[in-house]
Amino acid sequence: MQANMQKISWLVAGTGLGILLTAGATALAEKQALSPLPINELRAFTDVYARIKQDYVEPVDDKKLINEAINGMLTGLDPHSAYLDPEAFKDLRVNTSGEFGGLGLEVNLEDGLVRVISPIEDTPAFMAGIKAGDYIMKIDEAPVRGLSLSDAVAKMRGKPNTPVVLTVLRKGETKPLVFTLKRAVIKVQSVKSRMLEAGYGYVRLAQFQDRSTEDVARALEGLYKENKGSLKGVILDLRNDPGGVLTGAIGVSSLFLPDNVLVVSTTGRAPGSSEKFNSSSEFFPRDGKPLPKDIKTVPLVVLVNAGSASASEIVAGALQDHKRAVVVGTQTFGKGSVQTIINVGKDSAIKLTTARYFTPNGRSIQAKGIVPDIEVEEATLNGVTGDAFRVREADLDHHLSNPQGGDETKTAPAKQGQPEAKLAPQPAAPAKAKPEALDKDGKPVKDEEPLRPGEISLKKDYQLQQALNVLKVQQIVSRTTPVSEGGVAVATTTK
User: Fold this and answer.
1) From the candidates 190, 212, 254, 310, which is the catalytic residue?
2) Exposure check for the chain: N or C terminus, fewer CB within 10 A?
3) What is the sign of the dihedral through the CA atoms of 269, 109, 157 and 246?
4) Which domains can be identified in the chain, with CATH numbers?
5) Residue 47 pairs with which residues in a beta bridge?
6) CB–CB of 435/118 below 8 Å?
7) What pLDDT is attached to residue 424?
8) What is the pLDDT of residue 47?
9) Which of 109-123, 169-183, 428-442, 477-491 is most confident?
């Protein structure tokens, strides 16, 4: 198991990431026989190269031409393969540590613009109100169109406390939005927790990092301590979590699953790309400190949405397949592919898609995602759900197909003639809404203090309300139904 951990310690399952550092392309080539080189196609490449060098309106550096050719070769394969120049390679390694400089955005390149995959919580971009799905069209006064992704990211980075202006296109807005932000050293707090009600704990995981499993374990420990050593149930919130290191996904799953059950498997063509990863306490070393005694059986709900990707989908799929948790929310993003980072040269690398992920029951995540046990929309917007404005894996150009066939999960188009109203949705009230809370003088209790962007409020979060209701049903059923090892009895539900 220790060898497995070392092998995957750099494997990243994020929407914009995906890492498995290897010794280099040479080692991979030795394992797999290469087909003969396509002489005619290579001749065409050299002819084009020579024509650009001779006739282009301005002199072009050889390094630039080669780098752009490599990048084009990779980006044409699928949305997650890419060339990492020295700066991009450095950024990628720093990002997984959970501390780096910049604005706090997970981004990719789409249609010549930088698309926001997710703003990272508690960062300048997050606090300013930049949202997943926004398109950055200008950085300061420089248009983004025509820039490579690494060049665009470099423009957003800089010394802490220096300003940068982002001009953003957002669906539903009639004109571009302008945000003035100050760069900062980004220290991502990936785990937050709180008690929702007496006995019911809540853990929010914003991104899977190297230390996330230990942070989740510590958060659970704190919730148990706050509730005098026991909990009636736990909600694990993975909404808008773009993913992260694979060891984090296996570790978080292992917190709730018995040892040595399958969490995720990978299947690919290259030797070593087909693997099975089981749950184990080795993924969250506690120095002999035990986990809360009933953490393997406490009723559990996992909250997901279309922004939950990759590592988030691995956790949701594993807990769902083992019937350890009820998955609540909306269908996830559908990034079910593995990227391997292969060193090329001294400081650069390529990020290459080498395998697909499968849940313990053998379901492919790719372009389909995880379907929740209980579907609860985030909100409605004049008949269009909040997820209708998101982009899923199946919407991306050149995405990998699902090897098991069937319908891919694309973002549902807005209804014909439906106006793109501004994003200020109000969730539908439950069928039996609770009466308004009154204070001792019979006056309505004031709402919570204004929330920062992205903060969670039980009063205002309809999905969270319904997840808590599901958890209470689980807790009631678990008191009357024998609990099998590694699983908790749940109520049978239908959509």
Assistant:
1) 310
2) C
3) negative
4) 99-187 (2.30.42.10), 191-338+357-380+438-480 (3.90.226.10)
5) none
6) no
7) 29
8) 96
9) 169-183
Q: Which residues pair with 367 in a beta bridge?
A: none
Q: Is the pLDDT of residue 310 over 70?
A: yes
Give the Cα separation of 292 and 231 in Å (integer): 10
With a CB cutoff of 8 Å and minimum separation 6, the contacts of 436 are: 444, 445
Sorting pLDDT into bands at 50, 70 and 90, what band is 33? low
H/E run at residue 105: strand 105-110
State how far the alpha carbon of 186 is from the alpha carbons of 85, 105, 424, in Å.
Answer: 22, 10, 29
Give, to the nearest 10 degrees, the angle between helix 246-256 and helix 311-321: 30
Question: Cα separation of 376 and 468, whole Å?
Answer: 12
Mean per-residue pLDDT for 181-197? 88
310 included as an active-site residue? yes
Residue 254 near residue 246 (C-beta atoms within 8 A) = no
How confident is the model at residue 456, as a pLDDT?
66
Contacts of 14 (CB under 8 A, 6+ apart): 106, 207, 208, 242, 243, 244, 309, 310, 311
CB-CB contact of 415 with 388 (8 Å): no
Q: Give the Cα separation of 295 and 118 in Å (integer).
A: 30
Alpha-carbon Rg for the chain in angstroms: 24
Q: Using the predicted structure, report yes or no on whether residue 100 has a pLDDT greater than 60.
A: yes
Is 335 one of the catalytic residues? yes
* Region for 39 from its dihedrals, namely left if φ exceeds 0, alpha if ψ lies in -120 to 50, beta otherwise: alpha
Catalytic residue among 321, 373, 387, 461: 321
Which residues lie across from 357 on neighbouring strands? Answer: 266
The pTM of this model reads 0.70
285 burial (CB, 10 Å; 0-12 / 13-18 / 19+) is: exposed
Residue 289 a catalytic site member: no
Q: Which of 296, 335, 351, 368 is catalytic?
A: 335
Structure tokens at 185: 């050293």
Helices 62-75 and 39-55 cross at an angle (nearest 10°) of 140
